[in-house]
Amino acid sequence: MMAPGMLYGGAGASNYFDGVLIQKQRVMSSSTTTPKEHLGSLFAPASSSFLGSSSMVSFGGVNGGKRSFFDSFDQEDNEADELGEYLHQSEKKRRLTENQVQFLEKSFDEENKLEPERKVQLAKELGLQPRQIAIWFQNRRARWKTKQLEKDYEELRNRYDTLKSNYNNLLKEKENLTAEVFQLTDKLLAKEKGNGQLALCDTRENSDALPKETVAYPISRIEMSNVPARVHKQQQQEDLSSAKSDVFDSESVHSTFIDQGDSAYVFETEQSELSQDDDENFSKTMLSTANLLGKAEDDDYPGRSSNLSYFGFPVEDQGFGFWTY
DNA sequence: TTGTGTTTTATTGCCTCC
DNA sequence: GGAGGCAATAAAACACAA
């Protein structure tokens, strides 16, 4: 690339080159100008131009209204400073003044694309070359795009974090509910055993002889996500020692007592009917089902043999695991 | 003062559109 | 084919800590 201090070459460089030199010529004495600077003066803007860095000039009210950029430029007050400042500037890249930038920013906010007419107008108002205006807009669009990408990324990350957090909460809730089902199942088994009406099989009795998965987590494959959370909380408040408050819903969890000799006591689920809107019904029907169980204990519920020895969840066709002995 | 990182201005090459 | 846009990049200007 170009060495430091070199003036810009290449196809697009001449305009800017001229523009910079125009500015310089207007401040410096004519004896310092080169032939190229004289050439550049042909393109000098009609109005007073911006000269050099932001510290060189001071504009008031540039962004305030519709006035021309130069209306409030106090040339006399600043001329000496401009000259002094300019003498310190090399013939290299020059930054736009703060006010020029503000003016361009304002223009960019209105419309980030630059039509040719607008480009010329801005160039005139700011005392810059049209190409400089175009370059500034180009770079500004690039900066805007980068910022936008960062913003979008941040937004996506926040959404991801929220989703992840929700997922983890649901996972925990599912674990809690699963644990509770086990707990309640055990209680029910114990209760049934104690009553002597059902020869229910304790799942842990023969656990050594069974595959671990089916013994330790017999309902782990049951779709738990449809179990309303409120049931969980409500159940915690109820007397868990009572079989009448245990967990089976006559609407959403149809209990079917099938006499299979010594090995059947099957609950069939209709999970598709469960939704969060059914929480209330679910709770009620759980109670009624529990009552039914209680009644069965009392009244020798028809359809259930007195020597059932299996308690589990169905369901071969759904791939649910259950245990048999 | 100097080294280093960041920002700004500008160039280059490629692409699309008219 | 020329104009204009964009991505990648260079390099000057600037900010700032040591």
Entry keywords:
325 residues, two-stranded antiparallel ribbon, DNA-binding
Summarize the structure.
This protein has 325 residues and is mainly alpha-helical. Helices cover 49% and strands 2% of the residues.
Based on the structure, what is the oligomeric state of the protein chains?
A: single chain
Instruction: Report the strand count.
Output: 2
Q: Can you give the helix content as a percent range?
A: 40-55%
The average pLDDT is 54
Q: Termini distance?
A: 83 Å
Quickly count the helices. 9
Fold and architecture overview:
- The chain has 325 residues and is an all-alpha fold.
- It has nine helices and two strands.
- It has helices at 13-27, 35-41, 75-87, 98-110, 116-126, 130-195, 212-216, 229-237, 279-299; strands at residues 253-256, 266-269.
- Strands 1-2 form a two-stranded antiparallel sheet.
- It starts with 12 loop residues before the first helix and ends in a 26-residue tail after the last helix.
- 22% of the residues are buried.
- The protein binds a DNA duplex (18 and 18 nucleotides) through helix 6.
- Transcription factor.
- Residues 139-187 form a coiled coil.
List the helices and strands and how they pair.
Elements: H1 13-27, H2 35-41, H3 75-87, H4 98-110, H5 116-126, H6 130-195, H7 212-216, H8 229-237, E1 253-256, E2 266-269, H9 279-299
Antiparallel strand pairs: 1-2
Helix pairs in contact: 1-2, 5-6, 8-9
The protein binds a DNA duplex (18 and 18 nucleotides) through helix 6.
